[in-house]
Design a protein that fits this description.
By secondary structure, this protein is an alpha+beta fold. 27% of the residues lie in helices and 25% in strands. The chain has helices at residues 35-64, 84-96, 121-129, 145-159, 177-191, 230-237, 241-248, 380-389, and strands at 73-74, 77-78, 99-103, 106-110, 117-119, 136-137, 141-143, 172-175, 196-198, 201-204, 220-223, 261-264, 286-291, 296-301, 304-310, 323-326, 329-338, 341-353, 356-361, 376-379, 395-398. It has a five-stranded mixed β-sheet with strand order 15-14-13-21-16, with no helix packed on it. The longest helix has 30 residues, at 35-64.
């Protein structure tokens, strides 16, 4: 009997799952420790940040200390190829040197700070850093014009030369502060580039006096104030300057000093009477007359003279307009400018025709002679009196 070979089959069912290894018999996988790697990564990142920061500082330092481009100059001073620090030293030294103010062969010295001028060193250095080759620059200056005019007014006591009436009369010289202020406002860097400021001066004629006579018997003591000169003091009191010289044993009228006591041969400051004054523009209400010939202003109420004072009207080259006008606007203070002059915060201003006005004056004390660019200059207290007294619409006659 033949044997039949049966096919060999696995005893495991076809769809039965494959047996899994016994976990108890499988060795455990080792755990990974990430902490060292995290520490190393953090140290690397911090190091990279530190090096980046140092690089930025070095780059900024290199940029800030890089030399100025070739051919660059500032106010005529060649600084091309210099370092910024060298330029800073030069600018600082320039800011500390005095400014020379001149009138012909006469000169005076002031510091930039005294003159109201400040050098913007950092702004100037920034301009130098960014300047292309062959660039010509100016120093960057700022001007406090109010401080400048105050200092120039103080200096005018030394600069001005008094006009002396007599036979023959002697012309004087006076600083034209508005024009000097205008120049500094327009181009301070250019005006002061060489450290010299040429003062603008006016030639002034001596005033005529109305003498009451030294033998009148009346006497007044006058205390000399800043900016006053003998010829105009005499005109204030309506006496002859020679009478004051004789009464006070003064040989040189230019040698006055602030606080000096003068005996005046008069009972007080000159006040014109109704008969001496020009006619009022109207017999109704308030009105003002400005006399360019007498350099005096008059106030009237219903045609009657109530107040008068010396004034300064326009110079021959810039005369005050003549005619009948009315005050059309009033300002407690106003900036004034015109061809070749600038005046900040002029007090108690009353305009009567275009830019012509009656106002207070802080830049000179030479009332009684032409001194202005067309306006009617008054001492500030007098300007306040007229400002408070007159209203918009008040008639103004200029003769």
């Amino acid at each position: 009997m033949n044997k039949v070979n049966k096919p060999m089959y696995s005893s495991r069912p076809v769809n039965s799952p494959r047996p899994q290894p016994n976990p108890k018999n499988t060795p455990p996988k080792p755990k990974r420790n990430w902490l060292p790697w995290l520490v190393v990564g953090a140290i690397g990142a911090i190091g990279a940040a530190v090096f980046t920061f140092i690089g930025i500082l070095l780059l900024v330092g290199l940029l800030s200390n890089r030399g100025i481009a070739s051919g660059v100059s500032i106010a005529g001073l060649a600084v091309g190829g210099d370092s910024i620090e060298t330029a800073r030293i030069q600018l600082t030294n320039w800011a500390q040197r005095p400014v020379k103010l001149t009138d012909g062969d006469r000169s005076w010295q002031l510091s930039l700070a005294d003159l109201g001028v400040q050098l913007d060193i950092e702004g100037t250095l920034d301009a130098l850093k960014n300047a292309p080759a062959q660039t010509k620059l100016q120093r960057r200056l700022t001007v406090d014009l109010v401080k400048t005019q105050d200092r120039l007014f103080d200096l005018s006591n030394e600069v001005n030369v008094a006009a002396v009436p007599g036979n023959p009369p002697q012309q004087g010289r006076a600083m034209d502060i508005p024009v000097t202020l205008s120049r500094l406002q327009a181009d301070a860097s250019g005006e002061l580039s060489d450290g010299v400021l040429e003062l603008d001066m006016m030639v002034v004629d001596p005033p005529e006096t109305e003498s009451r006579g030294i033998n009148s018997g009346a006497r007044t003591t006058h205390i000399v104030e800043k900016g006053q000169e003998l010829a105009l003091i005499a005109r204030d009191y309506g006496v002859d300057m020679q009478d004051i010289l004789a009464l006070n044993n003064i040989s040189n009228p230019d040698l006055l000093y602030v606080g000096q006591e003068l005996i005046i041969p008069a009972s007080g400051e000159y006040e014109p009477t109704q008969a001496d004054a020009p006619a009022a523009p109207t017999n109704s209400g308030r009105s003002i007359v400005v006399s360019t010939g007498e350099q005096r202003i008059y106030a009237y109420e219903d045609g009657t003279l109530v107040h008068s004072h010396l004034a300064s009207t326009g110079l021959p080259a810039t005369p005050t307009v003549l005619g009948d006008y009315k005050i059309y606007v009033k300002y407690l203070a106003d900036d004034m400018s015109g061809p070749g002059y600038f005046l900040p915060q002029v007090p108690y201003t009353m305009y009567f025709y275009q830019g012509y006005g009656i106002h207070g004056t802080y830049w000179h004390n030479s009332f009684g002679r032409p001194m202005s660019h067309g306006c009617v200059n008054l001492p500030t207290p007098e300007a306040q009196w007229f400002f408070d007294w007159a209203s918009v619409g008040t008639p103004v006659r200029v003769i």
